[in-house]
Amino acid sequence: MNARYTTLAATVGLLMHGAACGQAAPADRPWYVGGTQDFTHESNVLGTSSGEISDTISTTTLRAGLNQPFGRQRLRADATLSHQRYKDLSERDNSGYTVGLLLDWSTIERLSGNLSLASQRRQADVNVGGVAPSISNIERSDDLGFRIRLGVVTALAFEAGVGHRRVAFSAPEYAAREYRQDSGHVGIVYRPSGLLALSTGVSGADTRYLAPETGQTESDRNKRRDVYLSANWVPTGASTVDARLAYGRSEYELGTSSDFEGLTGALSWAWRPSGRLTMTTSLSRDSGQEAGYIRTATADGATSATDFSRVTNRVGISAAYQLTGKVDLLAELSYSRRGLVDRVTGEAGRDNTSMAVLGARWAVTRTIALGCNLSRESRSASGVGSSDLDNDRFGCFGSATFD
Fold first, then answer.
1. Three-class DSSP category at 338
2. Cα gap 175→189, rounded to integer Å
3. Can you tell me the mean pLDDT for 391-399?
4. 31: which of 102, 264, 320, 386 lies 20 to 30 Å off by Cα?
5. Rounded to whole angstroms, how far apart are CA atoms 208 and 223?
């Protein structure tokens, strides 16, 4: 599996996780509908380095999902509609949605594949990328992918895929960050056993930005080409390891100071040491444009299109512990280090961000659940493209789910 397709698969998974947030929807439920009411207080809602403004946000969410096999195919779809209201900063009130769709298909012969769609509308991360922040900035992203594989039960298979992504923002200050991207990959998959799958191939992505950067007279373009290796390994019944490593080059037509050549990749280890405890450890290194889509451990399941770094390195560990049959405890730690560059002036910068999350969820009944989350985010920055940040969040939710 190539780097770009791994990114899209992670995006779909995160959006589906977000759609199911606040309720225990087992994977084998054929359908579900539900709603969640959340109240969260943030100490630095605008993400500024000084003059911090706190606020309380009410989020009302409606959810629905489908998981249905038909013939040789299976359709998985999850969607949410949400509305946020800020107690003081009413300019940031917004309505959003998430959609995650995955259609797995196969034929009588040796053809199989899937179609993936991930779409999201949300209030964007603020004060990022060295861009002057707006009070409100709605981020919209759509990610579509199609993959085909020849060789279903054979040890050797051939795989190819294409993808398309669109990213847009409502704030005019972010117009130069809007883009459209087309991507594709071709590779070979070797499966020596049911516990190990290896693949290698080439991938590429062409990105067109929709407006010029400040100081540029025309919109920029980017071309990325990679050679990749990836593996899926199940060493024991309690562990699953997914890994990819790529070497490639990313080149801009105008902002050549952001060009990158070198190694990127990701490693994820899912481990269940006991019947009550599940842990996930992840490492990743990629351009910011892709890194926001491969966050595999986040409290809300959201992806982000507002990482504008030249390269982002991230490590994260999350744990879920079943304290009782009805009470689950959650914890997450993550650290990221970004290298930043101004595509016009060539000036460099960097930042380091740490995040800690604690949460608890109580299944009051099969239908009703309650929970709370506490998190702290801290960022230190130097040079261009970022700023210092401290933000504390505390929130509680109640949800109802019917199936």
1. strand
2. 40
3. 97
4. 320
5. 9
pLDDT of residue 297: 40
The pLDDT of 197-216, averaged and rounded, is 93
* pLDDT tens digit sequence for 295-347: 544 445 567 777 888 999 999 999 999 999 999 999 999 999 999 998 778 89
SS3 44: coil
The b-or-e profile of 37-74 (16+ CB within 10 A means b, else e) is ebebebebbbbbeeebeebebebebebebebeeeeeee
CB atoms within 10 A of CB 28: 6
8 A C-beta contact, residue 145 and residue 118:
no
Tokens standing for 352?
Answer: 């380091």
Query: How does strand 239-252 pair with strand 31-42?
Result: unpaired
Question: What's the pLDDT at 110?
Answer: 83
For the chain, the first-to-last Cα distance in angstroms comes to 34
CA atoms within 13 A on the CB side of 101: 12
Of 396, 398, 344, which Cα lies nearest the Cα of 370?
398
- Summarised one tens digit per residue, pLDDT across range 168-196 is 999 988 898 899 999 999 999 999 998 99
How many CB atoms lie under 10 A from the CB of residue 259?
A: 14
Question: In this predicted model, what pLDDT tens digit does every residue of 96-145 receive, in sequence order?
Answer: 999 999 999 998 778 999 999 999 999 987 766 666 667 899 999 999 99
- Contact status, residue 199 vs residue 188, Cβ threshold 8 Å: yes
Contact (CB, 8 A) for 102 and 73: no
Give the domains, in start order, of the chain with CATH numbers.
3-402 (2.40.160)
